[in-house]
Amino acid sequence: VKNQGRDGYCFYAPEMSQRSAASQRIENVLRHALMHDELRLQYQPKVDAKLGHIVGAEALLRLYVQGEEMFTPDQFIPVAEDTGLIVSIGTWALREACMQARTWQREGHPISISVNVSPLQFQYAGFYERLDGILNETGLDPSLLELELTERTMMSGGDGTIRLLRRIRQRGVRLSLDDFGTGYNSLSYLKHFPVDALKIERAFVRDIAQDAETAAITRAIIGMARSLNKDVIAEGVETEVQSAFLRDAGCSHMQGFLFGAPMPPEKFEERLTINGNL
Ligand code: C2E
Ligand code: CA
Ligand code: CA
After folding, report:
1. Among 39, 116, 127, which is best to mutate for testing ligand 1, by the most ligand atoms less than 8 A from CB?
2. 56 in contact with ligand 1, CB cutoff 6 A
3. Is 73 near ligand 1, meaning CB less than 6 Å away?
4. Is any atom of ligand 1 closer than 6 Å to the C-beta of 114?
5. Alpha carbons 250 and 266: distance in angstroms, whole number
6. Binning pLDDT at 50, 70 and 90, where does residue 20 land?
7. What was the pLDDT predicted at 1?
8. Where does the EAL domain start and stop, copy by copy (predicted)?
9. Ligand 1 centre from 102 Cα, in Å?
């Protein structure tokens, strides 16, 4: 129905059917990966802006086919969302990340772990119960878990959203507002939803050194968040100049290639050891 023309005819541009063939292929690969344990998480360091050491990690999904990385998250997450597969995939990622964080905690590295949550996964009726089950099952200290929600995720939750967010926080889990600054309602979201932190979108960070307006907006966002007692995490930090700016502006944490790209857990563990976190 969506593609109906003015007179009720359907028009299929060649690129449209191509796209759906591509997404069909991704769907098959995703189903296969779920069944054959071919999904992986990589971990990107989150560092303390002042002290520079690793205090956490963001878990990011990777999809492998016969040992090779085939699609990027920007390609397969939308397909997973369209097909509903994101509910199983997201649950898998949450459990896997909690198990990993629990292992690191046992080994003397009590770092926090951040996991991305999709709208559909969040909306799903059993979300809280699954989360609670995973925490019980893995024994992870809930204060070491942080869920990253976007404006889109918050919007999808409907009337029950605030209640659900409160419940999650009462369980001891932290919440952060991801991709902050890109949505229409970022500011009102900060006021209405009980979150502990916000993550400044990469696009802002990219431009702060070149563009005075972006610099001013970013500084204002950080100042406002700090006055509301929220942590502020800058993502996509690639240069020393950006890092110095963000630190001076009052950012509490940073992520980005300057501190480390997402990496497999073994690599991350090496970083933790030299981090002096022992
Ligand atoms: P995101 O949550 O905004 O994650 C940050 C993305 O920026 C990651 O891309 C990361 O690899 C990349 N990045 C980190 N530092 C830098 C930097 O310094 N420069 C640049 N240019 N990029 C940097 P990635 O891993 O490809 O993931 C893309 C998106 O896919 C994520 O964006 C997130 O929205 C989604 N995603 C990834 N894993 C999951 C997951 O487990 N569940 C859900 N629902 N979404 C996920
Ligand atoms: Ca994120
Ligand atoms: Ca982002």
Report:
1. 116
2. no
3. yes
4. no
5. 32
6. confident
7. 37
8. 23-276
9. 22
Pocket test for ligand 1, best of 60, 150, 178 (most atoms within 8 A of CB): 60
Neighbouring C-alpha atoms within 13 Å toward the C-beta of 64: 11
- Residue identifier of the C-alpha nearest atom 19 of ligand 1: 236
Read off the pTM.
0.92
